[in-house]
Fold these 2 entries.
Entry 1:
Amino acid sequence: MTASRGIPDRLRTPMERNLKSWESLLMLVAIGIFVANSFASPYFLNAWNLSDATFNFTEKAMIAFAMALLIISGEIDLSVAAIIALASTAMGAAAQAGVGTEGLVLIGLSVGLLCGAFNGILVTGLGLPSIVVTIGTMSLFRGISFIILGDQAYRGYPPDFAFFGQGYVWWVISFEFVLFAIIAAIYAVLLHMTNFGRAVYAIGNNATGALFSGIRVGRVKFILFLLTGLMSGVAAICLTSRLGSTRPSIAFGWELEIVTMVVLGGVNILGGSGSILGVVIAAFVMGLVTFGLGLLNVPGIVMSIVIGALLISVIALPRLWSMWRAG
Amino acid sequence: MKRRSFTSLVAGLSLAAGMMGSTAMAQDDMRIALVVKALGIGFFEAAAEGAEEAAKELGNVEIIYTGPTDTTAEGQIEVINALIAQGVDAIAISANDPDAVVPALKRAMDRGITVISWDSGVAEDGRQMHLNPSSTELIGNTIIKLAADHMPDGGDVAILSATATATNQNAWIEAAKGVLPNYEGVNLVTTVYGDDLSDKSYREAQGLMASYPDLKAIIAPTTVGILASCQAVTDAGKIGEINVTGLGLPSEMAGCVESGATKSFAIWNPIDLGYSATMLAHAIANGAEAAPGAEIAMGRMGSVTLDDTNSAAMSDPFTYDSSNIDQFKSIF
């Protein structure tokens, strides 16, 4: 562009440029959807309705943050929804036996951690591909729930347990939304401001190189599986509390929605790049689209088509743009 | 340069939303949402047809026919949240999970929305009333009547049920035995169990024909059993001698009715069910009290009386025979 080529004070890799435009693009999409929704439905701009809308994505987004780190490191966990089912079933059984709210939370988190550890050991200990391992554990974890519950349901959770999924911290701000914001902040710091976060990127870009640079690749990946399991446990607590009951079909099909959220958020499905901010915006985009279309009583199948089209266009647009400029 | 693509995308989205917005209806209509287990199921499409019929009859009623893509409680909760946000007047739901939708429906009731369940019920504290398609007594009576209608001189009948532990079937059979004295000459010889498996039901039907040579009718209060029995009777060349009846699906039973192996059978009519649910939701939203003992009118379907759990039964199961099977076989 300029005649003399000076030395820049910092390097801007193509990846970084792409990332920056990605979040701004997503942000514009989110704003566009927000504006479109406000025009399309008179019920959209209402504090309580918007608060209700956040429940469409908060639980999924909690898992999506941990999943983002896992995908950046080059792995994936498809068993997250099944972990929710198993954790919820364990909590239901415990509630039946008279365990109090604190105990239930502890059980939910522990089951999540244990499932995450199981995935982690199989992937990092035995060196198996994570997509195969977690497709297996997806059936395994949910299968155990089906064996325990069959066509029955657990109800009768203690009354104060309802706070996690149905409680409000202040006015229309739900507990789940506050938790979502706190978890987002924690993951943003973890990924973008710590050595651990840099290690995650390094592993995703070149695992062998990272290993020779002294990064304990296996341990980092194991911790990421633990975190994903833990987040599934947290989501299980919120969802179970919101539904007030457990069936083995709970959260069925969520793993794909969570991966969609992560990819829409700009995380490279092949690993190596992505940001938490992108995932946060993607969560809002998906929540706003489903809620906005719901207000217009658009059938669910059309919603799936819209989400799919949105995903493909947001991913394809920057690529098409650069091809057009280059050509 | 890049900005152009963003603005066109945003413009496209607003355009799309604007087009959808044009379908918004006038405010003064009463809006009743018919929430089903999942969209694209023939049974529920037929129920929606009944709801539209009721809306036309009532006037000033808009039906919102909606539901999730697959039969999950979470999907239904998102639908319920969107309906609460729109401030609909009433929700009539066939629930995917009797418990999981309760918190969301409670919130709907807190905000002044009338909530009833139909077909597949919601736990008591999540709805104002529940409409069952039929009742144990009505079903028990119907299955005997179906057999008796086609055997004027009486004779032996046998019941081929699902599993020996199936709660529904056992209750219906108990009720059927209770009304037997009302049908002179009808002699129930035995009850066998096909476990709702096609091959086992088929063998049990064969066994019945072998053990009771004078058998005039097989009554199967299960969709699997009735189809297998019809097949067994057809294969044994006993069409016309033995009438297979009970509860079945029109789409599956069309062939049996055509061949004459089944003269008539019954199942609830989804059109009537959607119609009645809409009528009830409209009545309660307009101030009719939903309390034990209350009687609520539902247009051409008569009226229902609520029991101790605020539940009610719509009617006798609807009878299908050669005169109407063609109309219904494509519906469900």
Entry 2:
Amino acid sequence: MTAVDGVRSGIGGLRTGLGGGRARFALVLAASILLVVGFRVLTDSGVFPESWNVGLADPIDRARRWLITNQNLHWLYTVFLNPVTDTIDWGIRRLEALLEWFPWYSYPLFTGLGLWWTRGRVAGVLGLAGVALIGVVGLWEEAFATLALMGVSVLISMVIGIPLGIAAWRSEAVARITRPTLDTMQTMPGFVYLIPFVLLFGFGRVPAMISTVIFALAPVVRLTEVGLRTVPQSTVEASEMFGATERQTLRLVRLPQARPAILAGMNQTTMLAMSMVVIAAFIGAGGLGQVVLQAMQSINVGKASEAGIAIVIMAIILDRFSTGIATADPGQDAKPIRWLAAVTSVGAVVGGFLGFNDFPEALGWRFAPYVNSMADWARDNLYDIGGSGIGTGPFSDFVTLEFVTPLRELLSSGIPWPAMIGIGVVLGLWARGPRLAVGIGAALVAIGFLGMWELSMDTLAQVLIAVAATLAIGVPVGILSSHNDLLRAALKPVLDFFQTIPSFVLLVPVITLFHVGRIPGIIASVVYALPAAVHYTDLGLRRVPVETHEAAESFGATRPQRLRQVEMPLAAPELMVAVNQAIMLILAMVVIAGLVGGGGLGLEAVRGLRRSDAVGRGFEAGIAIVLLAAILDRLTRAVADRLRPPSAV
Amino acid sequence: MSRSIRPTGSGSNAQSTVEVGIKVMDTATDTSNEASRVRVEGVWKVFGKRPEEARQMAEAGAGREEIREAVGSVVAVRDVSFQVSPGETFVVMGLSGSGKSTLVRCVSHLIEPTEGTVEVCGTELTQADSATLRDLRRRKMAMVFQHFGLFPHRTVVDNVAYGLEVQGMDRRERQERARELLGTVGLEGWGDHHPQQLSGGMQQRVGLARALAVDPEVLFFDEPFSALDPLIRRDMQDELIELQLRLRRTLVFITHDFVEALKLADRIAIMSDGAFVQVGTPVEILTNPADDYVRAFTQDAPVVKVLQACSVMRPLGETEIDPGWVRVSLTTPLEAALPHLLGSTDPVLVCDEQEAPVGLLHADEVAGVISPDRR
């Protein structure tokens, strides 16, 4: 009975997954070809006509100039914005001063004790060594600047996020506003948040902090709401039956049970804030990100590596600590830890008054020169190994010439722009329906009107190639890992590690090997998106019910048959989620890669951030990035929904 | 008190009216208004839109499916009325979807009934403001839940103390009282564990202790034992009976298990499709099922194991007692009395806790209760 059911559900999934959609997809293909051929024959339109550019850049540039001249005169600033700016800046400065007051040795010690308490002895020792290393390479002050900015951003995110999450849980009306807003906020590459705030506040830590808060807010709000929503109804009823008031139930029953979810939200918010604070170096946030940025611009790979490693250390410690709080083993004997913590605290205060605050220069050691000479060696030897035409250089050239450039030209001028819009509409129609179709069409037309058509197609080409590469590597690895617990256990720390690293830092090693250009950006984004692709493939395949496996096996299906006919169709929605996640991560990375010669929208946005006469263009590029992100996100999510087997009514 | 019951089974060969005694110690049939702890009057619950319309359709005799298709709403409880006296155990028995869980939630006012009145301990809940309701819940009533509803983030003792904490009792006092109650339900020494570390049966003991901690007059049980293994379920039932003998609270007990209902109840209400089909003592239900639906349940019931001497005996009255008669206690299962009845023509004498004779078991009457032919 169950075997038959299992097979039936497997076959059902297969049918809804592929069979029914195949004919319709053929229709989409036919329509697309017809559109391309039709427009090629009828018109000579290639790129979106430049004369249709609505020219948003000029008014924005004018606005920026007006803002600069009126910064200290207009009431908007004197009454409202400047006090906000000053307060935030004051907060960050105070926190920084406080961090610097404590003696240098208290940081490695406290980190070590904290990780020992939440994660165990080994983590404690590694944490201690990690923090010490930041001091050893002489990035103590920069680390404090980053930490202070982080601390204030995360704190404000919590102060706003948790009550907002409670409000969204309590009121369906609030949730109806926050949910789509947060969805949209999360799909946008963090980078684009910087643009409007630079416009308003200029450079510095304040716009950096505000964009960080906005970028990092979503998880804590969402998970607070989810945590409260998933509190078992039975416990709430029980509390109600004892005559608890609403407040008592919230405080004594709901919030404590939502605590793990809220802590998970805080962890994610912290990690997002970390990656954003680093990227915010683009608008003068200072700190470790600034060191990486400057080093990369002067192609000082060694210096960039030092700062990059410092960032990675900081990110991993914050991640392990904040997830550790939620899962700390209450059974372990905390007595020695408490003892040592007390001693360290006394030592910290005493040292603070005595003034041991600077990391001792005598302990300093720089590894930048070694990395630089390694990078030189890599450039001399790996770029074109023995002049044989094999190496990173020829590889870059090959990918550029055979894939990136042709695809870019195909998208931007090979396919006439009206046909491109038509294809988008048809895809939307196929994936979900008229509303999505109209949305995609409108977004593409808007990109054209912004004068961003060619740059957007450049970026899209890079994204598509990176997605193809990510899936080509990630899906097979995911399949292997879903069948092999050992491999999965081995992969997990690696994947965790890559997900913890702030996106920006990934560029450093890639540039060492591949110089600048489009290829390092694409490679970095593939590396950045791979963990998600592997994870969701593995997850999707593992969710296939055991009975379905057994049913297929009982009919004598071979392993490849099982994979092709049963597992993949059933895992199809999850695979589509993998595609969606990969695309969003890749887009975020490709945009940042504009900095290292990636071209496309990213370069335009970076330029807008760095040169005040290019803010308008940067703003337009930012909008185009947002539109592109929205199109790709909605489209892939709609396809994922389509692939889901019909749920029981 | 006693009642005349006329068996109606089609294959019945009973010619005479069978007179059976019901539990002497209960006040089950005392249904005078002021004495009842729980009074439910014409309660309806309709989920979905246009409740009034759905209600009218139901009153006109429409079935659940019919109404759902016509109005799009579900009539979960239709026109239920009953009263429960102090110290009585009132069991509502029905299959899943019969509306019994909705009914107990209407009575405890976790959900608002669409129509009708509910009175607990003399307070009309449907009219009460939230403060009155809260106060009533803090002092007078408590509930035990199907999936225990324990707080996973609190220790066992803090779970039990929850109701007292909500009342505002200080920490030391409430913990002391909670530990005392853990002793009552046989969980001494488990107070500092978390509920998830306990077995299902132990978890429900915590649920029971938590409900008893506030010293309520009325206890609601929403299928409390249905998530437990059969053996543990039986132990819990026995313990509840024992506890009830000592504490004499008013219990409203929901179950889908007919045997459980027979075992625990002073009175049983059989519920189907949102309405009460029959209300009566276990003996009444067994000997005189109202329709085929109820009869289907009685068919397989292990009557001799479930029914106790007290529920089948005839009151002693003026009968001369022969010292040679076999004596059994009130709680002796029929099973244990049967050999004596079958082995001789003498009746069996039923005695209370003080060994005083209170009633008689006669072979023909017992046969009338237990044999399916005669039901």
